[in-house]
Amino acid sequence: MSEVLDHRRVAPDDGGYGGPAVVVRGLRRRFGERVVLDGIDLEIGRDEFVALLGRSGSGKSTLLRALAGLDPDYEGSCLVPDARSVVFQEPRLLPWRRVLQNVVLGLPRGAHARRQGTDALTEVGLADHAGAWPATLSGGEAQRVALARALVREPALLLLDEPFGALDALTRLKMHALLADLCRRHRPAVLLVTHDVDEAIALADRVLVLDGGNLAVDRRVDLDRPRDRTAPGFASLRQELLAALGVEP
Amino acid sequence: MTVVDAPGAAVLAPPGAAAPALPPDLTLREAWPQRSRRRRRVLPRGVRRLVGPLLLVAAWYALTASGTIDARTLAPPTDVVRAGADLWAEGELQAHLLASLRRASVGLGIGVTLGIALATITGLLRVADDLLDPAVQVLRAVPVLGLLPLVIIWFGIGEAPKLALVAIGTAFPVYVNTHAGIRGVDAKLVEAATTFGLRRAALIRHVVLPGAVPGFLVGLRFALTGAWLIMIVAEQINAKTGIGFLMNEARAWFRTDIIVLGLAIYGVLGLVTDGIVRLLERALLSWRRGFTGA
Fold first, then answer.
1. Is the minimum CB–CB distance between B292 and chain A shorter than 8 Å?
2. How many structural domains are present in chain B?
3. Is B146 part of a structural domain of the chain?
4. Domain assignment present for B187
5. For chain B, percent of residues with pLDDT exceeding 70
């Protein structure tokens, strides 16, 4: 399990904690003989949006699962905040709970939670689906409910594991805009695992590429928002990242 | 309608190569012919479902009333109805029916509770599963009615052995299917729920048990069928009440009308309990969007 981020240890001198939201030191993870993560060092700032790229099987999801507290078998240290939420590639809604109940799952029961849940659904534009069964939702709607369920907990760290990978291209673009908007309002630290270079550049403050168990690229994205795919900076960064991923243009 | 030419059909051919000739005729047909598209129902669904049983009774009447089948072999439906009306008027039918219903529901209640409890323990705890499940599987292979002599020795000849048989016979199907239901709950859902801070008790309540409900209902169906089957046998041994006793007594007097009446009552009870499970399914599984038939 990930250790809870100890504020005193990381930021000893200031009452309002201004340090990073994630501190990873020497993170190693082996599956049998195979070393998937080979001593990762990583810090993510308080409201920083980090995209993690990597080829399939490069260990992106392994890193995310370690940060999520879903992996008991890593070596090294992973300091993360208590308030963290995960959105997976599949919505993973409970089919036997209505949409609103799914959103407030695990929150203390009551009118307060219900109001919070309704607010979160309003934010993702699904307030009128509060009483619907998950089976009646489209893929994009279900993933928006999963986003609402993650945000209703006011996470300090939002972990996204290829959340738009199963959506069609049009829906994905809409989801990008929605996610950017939500992150601006809630300001969590975000780690977005994706294999889509355009998605990473469009959304992130910083892009990482995981290769051979190490972070091969760690690069800030200094493009104006909203980001235009035709801007010269976009295209050159895209080329660079694709090359790092082993795709020759 | 025929299509003579399909533009763009040669796109895949290598550049420069001549496109292969298209067959001159292509017949097009409506994807779903108009006349067989969903029509308005002539009969409501409930009425349609009655047609089968009614045809069965009609055939029975035709065969017995015409004398093709002798009344001593199988009484015609009219005699069965008369026998039922007579027994009802004497107040006997109600008493026997009540006794049977009581046995079935008490035995079923015990069996279902046992089955759920055992399945929950073995479904949730690996240790309990390793210790108990093999034993349960071995016991399950023993035919319930084979236990009859043993049950009589253990519980005597009163109500207890009948309840015990029904309870044993219903506990197993509920156990097996509920256990499978719990084990079949999607691990991804459990994982997602843990990331939202759900701990053991809440996980069981919100994720594991609701996910096992479909399996449990399958088990309950089997249990209900089994309960009536066991009742028929149990009530013919050392009983003074119940539909089975009524039939057994009728046998001594060659009253096939009463025997068939008993069988019909068992049949109706089976249908009614099946209907109750259907209602339960509709209430508990309303979140599922299954195929309901054309």
1. no
2. 1
3. yes
4. yes
5. 90
